[in-house]
Amino acid sequence: MQIQGYYDLKFEAVKDAFAELFDNPQERGAALCIQIGGETLVDIWAGTADKDGAEAWHSDTILNLFSCTKTLTAVAALQLVGEGKLELDLPVAHYWPEFAAAGKQHVTLRHLLSHSAGLPALHAQLPGEALYDWTAMTDALAAEQPWWTPGEAHGYAPITYGWLVGELLRRVDGRGPGESIVNRVARPLGLDLHVGLADSEFHRVAHMSRAKGNLGDAAAQRLLKCFMSEPNAVSTRAFTNPPSVLTSTNKPEWRRMAQPAANGHGNARSLAGFYSGLLDGRLLEPELIGELTREHRRGEDRTLLTATRFGLGCMLDQPEVANATYGAGPKAFGHPGAGGSIGFADPERDLSFAFVCNSLGPYVLMDPRAQRLARVTAVCLE
Predict the structure, then answer these.
(1) Residue 244: pLDDT over 80
(2) What does the alpha-carbon distance between residue 72 and residue 68 come to, in Å, rounded to a whole number?
(3) How far is residue 327's CA from residue 341's CA, in Å, rounded to a whole number?
(4) Matching Gene3D superfamilies, A to Z (predicted)?
């Protein structure tokens, strides 16, 4: 496989490990970017971007980043905290009065960002088209009863996070959530990141498809078993309600909507640039970086059925948990996206790392492909 792009010779082992991914015939396209102190030392890509495997992955290819989007959303919210327009510990209902229904009068933005609000899913099954109806989804969440007492446990909100935090952005920033995030986070740094993609950009979006025959690790199999046998469980509802959540990524209407939990589009270069912007203080003041990256919740996740550790809108490293470590330093923070894409920062090395791919793996947290590349990167930095 021919690797395109640039890499510093110090990282030749990383380039070789990236090339080895394509020994798997199911690997379609991928990109990797590594920045140290804001300087790009690796920016490489390879493979194909289209459905039929005929179009090469290009320098400007972008793709659905799935939950890597969540940290962009959290940073936009924390900027509003810094401006005094939002407060982390004021009830959400202060900004969104209808939200106080069904025992949620004490739920705060901090609860939403740390996945401890008890709202990872909706109890009542919604039709597929509700996915694209912002008002229907936010009205449903405003009326929803929490799955547990807010603040007493945590469970990852794979998709509801976008409507919950996004509605707060919409109400206090006076513009759509995607517009708010892009103007606050991407545009100031010149990043090719989008939350709500213009049709004019569709031609460079990679087609996503699932790799076959790999059942993933024990955590993935546990979640799959729940999906198959417990249709009303919080885990199942979180990923399949509305039922179109898992099947929409290549649809035009999915690309166009601004769902700031899961449908940001971008590339490795811009995702790494986002984390460099966090490390060098261009996006958040030090106090708010501290809130973003401070441990808020740790332990068994009621949605993912595995151990998770959250800051605010980001996942923190769990060095002792095989499927939950970035493979870098113990202070690493970032966010994986469904199928294998990931962006993270290691403050101890001033490292920003992003890997994106359009061959979707089945893992719940960290994809082994990204973990291996991060481990090789750490060795190159020794």
Answers:
(1) no
(2) 8
(3) 14
(4) DD-peptidase/beta-lactamase superfamily
User: Is 246 a residue whose pLDDT tops 90?
Assistant: no
Instruction: Find out whether 10 and 39 touch, Cβ atoms under 8 Å.
Output: no
- The arithmetic mean of pLDDT across residues 269-282, rounded, is 98
Please state the domain extents for the chain: 1-382
Span 1-382: which CATH code?
A: 3.40.710.10
Q: What type of residue is 2?
A: Q
Assigned token pair, 72: 């962009």
- Where does the pLDDT of residue 341 fall: very low under 50, low under 70, confident under 90, or very high at 90 and above? very high
More confident site: 217 or 148: 148
